[in-house]
Specification:
alpha+beta; 70 residues; 4-stranded mixed β-sheet; globular
């Protein structure tokens, strides 16, 4: 049985600066114009992973939590 990674994407408006946005793009994480989570987008960082909102203090923290759960 092969383990596939869950689909991950980010709201183009969520990164707080260009460096964060470029890092997510460099990791191959696709962006979407709006994921419809405006309150979460305003309050902190999040990624949509397997159609679920996953929040964290940084994108690195979120991605590490996903890789630990695989």
């Amino acid at each position: 049985m092969s383990s596939s990674k869950p689909p991950i994407r980010f709201c183009i408006n969520n990164p707080r600066n260009l460096a964060e946005r470029q890092d997510l793009i460099a990791r191959g994480i696709p962006s979407k114009d709006c994921l419809g989570n405006c309150t979460a987008c305003f309050e902190g960082r999040f990624l949509e992973i397997d159609d679920e909102l996953v929040e964290g203090d940084s994108y690195q923290e979120i991605l590490e939590s996903v890789s630990k759960s695989e």
